[in-house]
Amino acid sequence: MAKKQSDEKPIVRCAIYTRKSTEEGLEKEFNTLDAQRESGEAYIASQKNEGWICLPDRYDDGGFTGGNIDRPALQRLLEDVKAGKVGCIVTYKIDRLSRSLMDFAKIVEILETHNATFVSVTQRFSTNDSMGRLTLNILLSFAQFEREIISERTRDKIAASRRKGKWTGGTPFIGYDVDSRSGRLVINPVEKETQNVTNNKENSL
């Protein structure tokens, strides 16, 4: 009896996440979100011996881009992960979850913090095994590279703008405005005159 209990697999509560960038075709009785969920359900069923069960809650984002994580169903899903209600996120493809490496890294960080995993059905990608974690590390390396490149480009752009005498942001000095066409500071006659009068009063005291 003790051996039987030790052989039992822990229950893995799986949530299927589906997404489509546009709302086109979502009015159909069986649409792409349904197809994605059906594939996810079949995959989870194939892992039944591993203790996987499919949660009935649907996390569908129809008409939302994968370029950011500002999606209602995804946010609800991540909250359920944090609450311990979900142990594994199952998607049809990786890009259904995110098209941004940086956002994907943030999502995986949340999963790791709460002992949850991620599986892509068609790409056989899972953070639950060594090969999946290796792939994840490669993706995170590219995410870090992407962040560093963006930071370098931003610094270079600001430096180049300053060399050309352009205002690089923030509130301009009193007596000056930012020219919308050239991006340079130009004198604001009214403010400049007011500033001169104020300075003269201070100097006379």
What can you tell me about this protein's structure?
By secondary structure, this protein is an alpha/beta fold. The chain folds into two domains: 9-136, Rossmann fold (3-Layer(aba) Sandwich); 161-205, no CATH class. It is built from seven helices and eight strands; from the N terminus they run H-E-H-E-E-H-E-H-H-E-E-H-E-E-H. It has helices at 2-7, 32-46, 72-82, 94-97, 101-113, 130-163, 189-204; strands at residues 12-20, 52-54, 59-62, 88-91, 117-120, 125-126, 176-178, 185-187. Strands 1, 2, 3, 4, 5 and 6 form a six-stranded mixed β-sheet that branches. A two-stranded antiparallel ribbon has the order 7-8. Helix 5 (101-113) packs across helix 6 (130-163). The longest helix has 34 residues, at 130-163. The N and C termini lie far apart (97 Å). Mean pLDDT is 81; it is low at 1-6.
Strand and helix order: HEHEEHEHHEEHEEH
Count of DSSP-assigned helices = 7
The CATH class of the largest domain is: Alpha Beta
Helix content: 40-55%
Number of structurally distinct domains: 2
**Residue windows where pLDDT falls under 50 for at least 5 positions:** 1-6
Overall outline: elongated
User: Which second-level CATH architecture of the largest domain applies?
Assistant: 3-Layer(aba) Sandwich
Mean pLDDT value: 81
What fold name goes in the CATH topology slot of the largest domain? Answer: Rossmann fold
Distance between the ends: 97 Å
Radius of gyration: 27 Å
Please report which band the strand proportion falls in: under 5%, 5-15%, 15-25%, 25-35%, 35-45% or over 45%: 15-25%
